[in-house]
Specification:
The chain is of the alpha+beta class. The protein is built from ten helices and seven strands. The strands form two sheets. A five-stranded mixed β-sheet has the order 2-1-5-3-4. It has a two-stranded antiparallel sheet with strand order 6-7. α7 runs antiparallel to α8. The radius of gyration is 21 Å and the shape is elongated. The chain starts with 14 loop residues before the first strand and ends with a helix.
Length: 247
């Protein structure tokens, strides 16, 4: 087992770290050695392994592929495995908490059930229009709808945009940027057969009209997606569908 006594690392002084603890409802202070190329996830892991084995958090891949390590770091939602300490703690101070807008299970781990339930409510699930016996549909890369969907497809459900969204904080029924972004990719999937129901879902209560275009989702998305742009597309598609119904 590693020495649990913090030592000054290559970058100078040890880090002063505050971590949210759900049992006390307050931040707990730790001192952690500052190491070269250290990530925020490294800091949390060091605390759990060396100072407090009861600290609860979530991670899996450690390389920015799964998104499960997302936490609030110095006030901003981030992937902790891809956030280097030097980027966010130039003064040697870190404040680490759970993601906003989700119920806390324990310490830094949040319950994402509501986040995923809203995906279902938004119709953000592919509805096939053909059967497995039909020929495979050919979707050309240069088709406009394909390019539009490609611009939004790389979401990995980390919940950072949801945690960053002030409208989610203000309205618990709001579907949120991730669910609406996924719905937009399916609106642009010519193979999908659930368009009418999906547009009704995303333009109904808690839907895309609730977005105030503050763009916090785009600002903090680690994959540099713009759910704001996707939601704007849903608003336009919903208006077009409403006009078609009135003809």
């Amino acid at each position: 087992m590693q020495d649990a006594t913090p030592q000054d690392g290559e970058h100078g002084q040890a880090l002063s770290v505050q971590v949210w603890r759900s049992e006390t409802g307050a931040f707990q202070s730790f001192t952690v050695p500052h190491q070269p190329s250290q990530t925020v996830l490294d800091v949390v892991t060091w605390i759990q392994r060396n100072q407090d084995p009861t600290l609860t958090y979530r991670f899996a891949c450690r390389v920015g592929m799964c998104g499960s390590c997302a936490m609030t770091v110095n006030g901003a939602p981030r992937w902790t495995c891809r956030t280097h300490v030097g980027r966010v703690a130039a003064d040697g101070n870190l404040r680490i908490g759970p993601l906003r807008n989700m119920a806390v299970i324990r310490d830094l781990a949040v319950d994402m059930a509501d986040f995923f339930d809203k995906w279902v409510r938004a119709g953000a699930v592919f509805e096939p229009s053909e059967t497995r016996e039909d020929p495979m549909a050919a979707i050309q890369p240069d088709q406009p709808a394909r390019r539009t969907a490609d611009d939004a497809i790389e979401c990995i459900n980390c919940g950072i945009c949801y945690a960053a969204c002030d409208q989610v904080a203000a309205d618990g029924d709001y579907l949120g940027p991730a669910a609406l972004n996924r719905a937009w990719t399916l609106v642009n999937d010519t193979r999908d057969g659930g368009q009418s129901e999906r547009l009704s879902a995303v333009t109904g209560p808690g839907g895309c009209q609730g977005c105030h275009s503050m763009a916090n989702c785009a600002r903090f998305c680690p994959n540099e997606l713009s759910p704001t742009a996707s939601i704007a597309g849903l608003k336009r598609a919903g208006i077009r569908a409403a006009f078609r119904r009135r003809k």
